[in-house]
Specification:
Layout lengths: L7 E5 L6 H11 L3 E3 L2 E3 L13 E3 L2 H9 L3 E7 L2 E6 H9 L3 E5 L2 H10 L4 E6 L3 H11 L4 H16 L6 E4 L3 H15 L2
Parallel strand pairs: 1-7, 1-8, 2-7, 3-4, 8-9
Antiparallel strand pairs: 3-6, 5-6
Helix pairs in contact: 1-7, 5-6
This protein binds guanosine-5'-monophosphate.
Length: about 190
């Protein structure tokens, strides 16, 4: 199984950097690319559905899964837990897919330690100001949550040097093409 892990692609970036949009475009572009669905204890946002964006678990169920070795990695972000499900990732890799994990920096560092052959990409906003505007425009978080996410973002951006590649998401199409070429080159 260890070779298959070279097809693991970790994508991180501050909340509002547009990493979910970039990844959605990558999935549209190439059916060999598959997105791992994580588990979280946070409440669904907007139209999010269980099993689509995340598996939404209670804290109790999440911790039980962690205890039973159900996660490749898990981390706390803000006041919630997030974890990459071992079963979900292994199934997709066994299917021959390139598997994208969209996870925060702590989890990304753990994955790189466990699977050095994996690829890591940091999606960077053009500036903190643009990031703040995007977060506010989304209108899905409370002011307190926005402030919390901006604080985390500044810290996360310092970690971009630890990634194999950084892609600045200024013009979406360019960011998507950059990320796509990086992924294609990795497993040549
Ligand atoms: P959000 O609440 O905005 O969906 O996600 C918050 C942060 O948690 C994002 O940076 C997202 O990439 C990260 N995240 C989502 N799933 C996982 C996971 O399975 N593991 C880790 N470590 N972080 C995750």
């Amino acid at each position: 199984m260890s070779d298959l892990y070279s097809k693991l692609v970790v994508v991180s970036g501050p909340s509002g950097a547009g990493k979910d949009t970039v990844v959605a475009k990558l999935l549209e572009k190439d059916s060999d690319i598959s997105l791992s669905v994580s588990a979280t204890t946070r409440a669904p946002r907007g139209s999010e559905q269980n099993g689509v964006e995340y598996y939404f678990l209670s804290v109790e169920d999440f911790l039980a899964k962690a205890e039973n070795d159900g996660f490749i990695e898990h981390a706390q972000y803000g006041s919630n837990y997030y974890g990459t499900l071992k079963s979900d990732v292994e199934e997709r890799l066994a299917d021959g897919k390139t598997v994208v994990l969209v996870i925060e920096v702590q989890g990304a560092a753990n994955i790189k330690k466990m699977y050095p052959q994996s690829l890591s990409i940091f999606i960077m906003p053009p500036s903190l100001e643009v990031l703040e505007n995007r977060l506010r425009g989304r209108k899905t978080e409370s002011e307190a949550d926005i402030q919390k996410r901006l604080g985390i973002a500044a810290e996360e951006m310092k970690k971009s040097v630890d990634y194999d590649f950084t892609v600045v998401n200024d013009a979406l199409e360019d960011a998507v093409n950059d990320a796509y070429n990086i992924i294609k080159n990795h497993n040549k």
